[in-house]
Design goal:
By secondary structure, this protein is an alpha+beta fold. The chain has twelve helices and 18 strands. The protein has helices at about 80-85, 135-150, 155-160, 180-185, 250-260, 320-330, 330-340, 370-380, 395-410, 425-430, 465-475, 475-495; strands at about 60-65, 95, 100-105, 105-110, 115-120, 160-170, 170-175, 215-220, 225-230, 240-245, 265, 285-300, 385-390, 410-415, 435-440, 495-510, 515, 530-534. The strands form five sheets. Strands 8-9-10-1-11-16-12-15 form an eight-stranded mixed β-sheet. Strands 4-5-7-6 form a four-stranded antiparallel β-sheet, covered by helices on one side. It has a two-stranded antiparallel sheet with strand order 2-3.
Length: about 525
C-alpha cells in the first residue's frame, strides 16, 4: 500500500476520541470448531422475491459449529463467524482465498509514514439492511463498542491498540494506533472489524443488522440458521434467495443427509474415513484443501505472571522436560492415520503450511518413547496422573483416546473427560484454565501470537516469545514474517504444547455446485457469495 504524507491536520474534523487503553500486542485467541445439532427435514422453499410465484433458489449447507449467539463479536468461538461473516456482516477490509487483504466496505486505505494512522475511504454506496448508510460514524461506533462493551476478550485485545478514531467526513475515517501493528489490520478483516448497524447493537444476540448480501430470516437453535437474500444489497446481489446452515452433532447423520439429497454442501467433512461414500462423480464433488486449524494438545504451563491468575494445572507441567516427554510419547503420524484417516498435515508448531513464515518443525521433539521415559524419570515424575479434557468434537474425542493410550506406555495416566463445546469447554479450559491437558482445533490465523500472552489459557510465559511477537507486530511485513518464524521455533523447542496435525478442508458438494474455495484459511467465514448452483 502507498504511504502518503500525513493528511493536513487543519482538514481533519475530530469527532470521537477513544481513551487510550494499555498498549498490548494484538493477540488472536482461539476460535474453534463447535458441535452441531441433529438434522431435521428440510423446510419448504419460499417464493423468490425476484420471480413471484416461482420456487426460491436455495442452498443448504451442513455444518458442525452452531453459534450460541447471532453476534459474532460476543464470543471467542468461530461458529457465528463461519455462517455470518461476509454473508450477513461486512468489514472494512477482507481476506481473499489466497490470504491477501482486499477492499470491502472501504474502497481504499492509506497508512501514514509513521505507520500509526490508517485512513479508510468508505464505499458511499454501502447500506445496512434497513437502508441507512454505512458511514464513518458507524465505523467509529463499532470500534468504541468493541473497546468498551461486553464483547469477546480476543476482540478487545485486538482493539486495545486503537488510540482514537476521527471522522473526517461521512466517507472518510482516520484510525490512530498507539503503536504500529501489522496484526491489527489483519484483525480488521475478521470478527473484530465487523461494521454492524449501531441501531442493532441492543438486539445483536438474536437479530442481525449487517450490510451483507444476506439477512437473517430465522434461527432455530439446535437446528439451523436460515438466511434470505437482501433485496436492497448495495453490491453484487446474492445468487440464492435462501441459504440454510443446518447443524449436526453426528457426522454420520450429516453424511446421510447429503447422500439422501437434503444437503447441497458438507462444509467440512468430520469423518474422513467415509469419503468413499461420495465417490460417485455423477452425484458428488470432493474438494480437498487446507485450513488454519491446528489440532493442539494444549498443556497448562501454569504461568503466574504479574496480573495473571495461574492456571490450575498440574505443577509438573511447568517443567520443560515433562512437556518434551509428552511430545515424544506421541506418534503423531500414527495418530493422524488413526484419528483422521491420514488426511491433514503434520505440524511441529502453531503454524500451518499456508503461513508465509511456515517451516517444518515436526522433527523438533520426534517420537521416542524411551527418551520420554528417561525425561520423566529425570524430572522426578516416572509415574504421573493428568487430566485430559478435550472438547467433545469428533476429531478431539478420537485424538484423546489415542493420546491417552500412548501416554500410558511411558508412565502417564491420562484421565479423559470430554467437555461439551462450546459452553463447558470455554468456561473450564479457555476462561478458567482449570485443566492439565486438552485437545481442540485452533482455527484463527496467525495464532502463534497467543503464546505471547501469559493470560491465555495455556498460561505460557516466555519473554523471548513475547519480544519476538512484539517485534513482528511493530515491523514491516518482511520483519513480521521473520519474527513470527522465530516465535514458532521458540515455542516448538520449549514444547509449549503438542501440535498433533493441521486439519484438512474436506468439502463435499453436489455435482453442479461451483465456486467453493479449496482452502479455508484466514477469514474463518464460509463465504457463499462466490458459490453458484447449476
Amino acid at each position: 500500500m502507498a504511504k502518503p504524507a500525513p493528511l493536513n491536520a487543519t482538514a481533519r474534523r475530530p469527532r470521537r476520541i477513544i481513551g487510550v487503553l494499555v498498549a498490548a500486542v494484538a493477540l488472536v485467541l482461539a476460535a474453534c470448531t463447535g458441535p452441531g445439532m441433529s438434522p431435521t427435514a428440510p423446510t419448504e422453499p419460499a417464493a423468490s422475491a425476484s420471480q413471484p410465484g416461482a420456487a426460491a433458489k436455495t442452498l443448504v449447507i451442513g455444518a458442525t459449529a452452531e453459534p450460541a449467539t447471532l453476534d459474532p463479536t460476543a464470543t471467542d468461538a468461530a461458529a457465528g463467524t463461519q455462517a455470518l461473516l461476509y454473508n450477513v456482516f461486512e468489514t472494512l477490509v477482507r481476506i481473499d482465498p489466497e490470504g491477501r487483504l482486499a477492499p470491502l466496505l472501504a474502497q481504499a486505505w492509506d497508512v501514514s509514514e509513521d505507520r500509526l494512522t490508517y485512513t479508510f475511504r468508505l464505499n458511499t454506496a454501502a447500506r445496512f439492511s434497513d437502508g441507512t448508510p454505512v458511514d464513518a460514524d458507524a465505523v467509529a461506533a463499532n470500534i468504541e463498542r468493541i473497546q468498551q462493551g461486553t464483547t469477546a476478550p480476543k476482540l478487545k485485545t485486538a482493539m486495545s491498540v486503537v488510540a482514537s478514531t476521527e471522522v473526517v467526513d461521512p466517507a472518510t475515517i482516520n484510525i490512530t494506533l498507539t503503536r504500529p501493528s501489522v496484526t491489527w489490520l489483519y484483525d480488521m478483516a475478521g470478527a473484530a472489524g465487523i461494521v454492524m448497524n449501531p441501531a442493532g447493537f441492543a438486539t445483536a444476540n438474536s437479530e442481525t443488522a449487517g450490510s451483507g448480501p444476506l439477512t437473517l430470516d430465522r434461527w432455530l437453535p439446535g437446528d439451523s440458521i436460515v438466511l434470505q437474500k437482501n433485496s436492497n444489497y448495495w453490491g453484487t446481489p446474492a445468487r440464492f434467495d435462501e441459504v440454510t446452515f443446518r447443524y449436526f452433532k453426528d457426522p454420520n447423520a450429516m453424511n446421510a443427509s447429503m447422500l439422501s439429497g437434503q444437503l447441497d454442501i458438507i462444509s467440512n467433512l468430520q469423518a474422513p474415513e467415509t469419503l468413499a461414500q461420495f465417490s460417485d462423480t455423477s452425484r458428488f464433488t470432493v474438494i480437498e484443501g487446507s485450513t488454519d486449524g491446528e489440532v493442539t494438545l494444549s498443556i497448562n504451563n501454569g504461568a503466574a505472571s504479574e496480573g495473571v491468575t495461574p492456571g490450575t494445572g498440574h505443577e509438573a507441567l511447568a517443567d520443560v522436560r515433562v512437556r518434551r516427554a509428552i511430545t515424544m510419547a506421541i506418534d503423531r503420524q500414527a495418530l493422524l492415520d488413526t484419528v483422521w484417516f491420514g488426511k491433514g498435515t503434520l505440524i511441529g508448531s502453531m503454524t500451518v503450511p499456508t503461513d508465509v513464515w511456515y517451516e517444518d518443525l515436526t522433527g523438533t521433539h520426534p517420537y521416542n518413547p524411551d527418551e520420554a521415559r528417561r525425561l520423566l524419570a529425570e524430572a522426578g515424575h516416572p509415574q504421573l496422573t493428568l487430566r485430559l479434557q478435550p472438547a467433545a468434537l469428533p476429531y478431539a474425542s478420537k485424538a484423546a483416546q489415542f493420546v491417552a493410550s500412548q501416554l500410558a506406555a511411558v508412565g502417564i495416566t491420562a484421565q479423559v473427560e470430554e467437555l461439551q463445546f462450546p459452553a463447558r469447554w470455554v468456561d473450564t479450559v479457555l476462561q478458567k484454565a482449570d485443566y492439565d491437558l486438552s485437545i481442540v482445533a485452533h482455527v484463527e490465523p496467525r495464532d502463534v501470537v497467543t503464546f505471547a500472552n501469559p493470560g491465555y489459557y495455556w498460561r505460557y510465559d516466555n519473554p523471548a516469545v513475547q519480544e519476538a511477537v512484539a517485534r513482528a507486530d511493530a515491523g514491516t511485513l518482511t520483519e513480521y514474517e521473520a519474527e513470527m518464524r522465530t516465535a514458532a521455533r521458540l515455542i516448538a523447542e520449549d514444547a509449549a504444547a503438542v501440535w498433533l496435525f493441521a486439519l484438512p478442508n474436506l468439502v463435499v458438494t453436489k455435482t453442479g455446485i461451483t465456486g467453493v474455495p479449496a482452502n479455508a484459511n484466514s477469514s474463518l467465514a464460509f463465504d457463499v457469495t462466490t458459490i453458484a448452483k447449476a
